[in-house]
Amino acid sequence: METVVSGIRPTGNLHLGNYFGAMKNFLKMQQENNCYFFIADYHSLTTHPTPADLHGSVKQVLAEYLACGLDPEIATIYLQSDVPEVTELYLLLNMNAYIGELERTTSFKDKVRKQPENVNAGLLTYPVLMAADIIIHNAAKVPVGKDQEQNLEMARKFARRFNNIYKVDYFREPQPYNFGEALIKIPGLDGTGKMGKSEGNGIFLVDNEKQIKKKVMRAVTDSGPTEMNAEMPEPIQNLFTLMNVVSEQSTIDFFKEKYAKCEIRYGDLKKQLAEDINMFVAPIREKINDIKANDDYLRKVAKEGAEKARESAIKTVKEVREIIGFKPF
Ligand code: TYM
Predict the structure, then answer these.
(1) pTM of the prediction?
(2) Where on the phi/psi map is residue 195: left (φ > 0), alpha (ψ -120 to 50), or beta?
(3) For ligand 1, which residues put their CB under 6 angstroms from it?
(4) 113 found inside a domain
(5) pLDDT (tens digit, 9 = 90+) per residue, 234-253?
(6) What CATH number does the domain containing 270 carry?
């Protein structure tokens, strides 16, 4: 059994990108591994949520995790902020993280460009906190989407560097848990880029049939292929990428053939895609609302999860402190 760690920032409802990037095959994953799934609420502070928004989003993501099939009896589900040992490990790892390498990470450079008014130190050291989240349980595998590839690479680097500095073989280098496939990027419906929480291009697990249909029907397309077997432009490829994760293979083949023969009608493709997405999210959507209404259950899950996660975290931090040389007199 391998240890798997997975985190999601609570900054709104979960979307199909989160699901297929990090949560696909939850059931299998939790049965075959020792899973720690947490809500990265410290990480979400980089965008300065209000206290009410923070609490609301944490509750939402917790309910969504559970609705997707995470079983608190098998996996450990917790809030990052309930495990203070993470912040100690973060501090210790920060001593070996260099400003230059942090400034060069793509996600940091992106944030500097997108929110120049709020380039805080938490953003710069974001990959260090993420490394702490992962190696605090000495995880072997981390399910992430393509967008987190670099952060995971940095986690490996910090783990390796710690081992090198202290001449120990203590931390494992965490690898992506990619279900035997390449890391996935679920595109948004706006033609380019990835589906994101704040990009306004996402389909959420809580979206109802009408909302899904409206979003899909509005997705960017073009005027259609004019040559047989033409290569697909990005917005069209994106629709097929979404189909790949929610539709039957025969449906995908049918529309691919229509495209190749220049007979495709995007309206039909979108209608089918919307239906398939709805089929996929409907059972999850129903469960989210039920679970969210049950505060006692959520409280119990978070409390028990925190206890289990702390057990593992306390052990790691104790050993790390010893390796570093903190010793009682
Ligand atoms: P976050 O909250 O942005 O996303 C959570 C997970 O969803 C994946 N994801 C996607 N995958 C494919 N296509 C997309 N369009 C898409 N959008 C999001 C992300 O890759 C991620 O796996 N830094 C992390 C949270 C985190 C974490 C960790 C993850 C903090 N500590 C430790 C794993 C381990 C983040 O912001 O993810």
Answers:
(1) 0.94
(2) beta
(3) 5-9, 17-18, 20-22, 40, 43, 130, 133-134, 142, 144-145, 147-148, 151, 184-186, 194-195
(4) yes
(5) 999 999 999 999 999 999 99
(6) 1.10.240.10
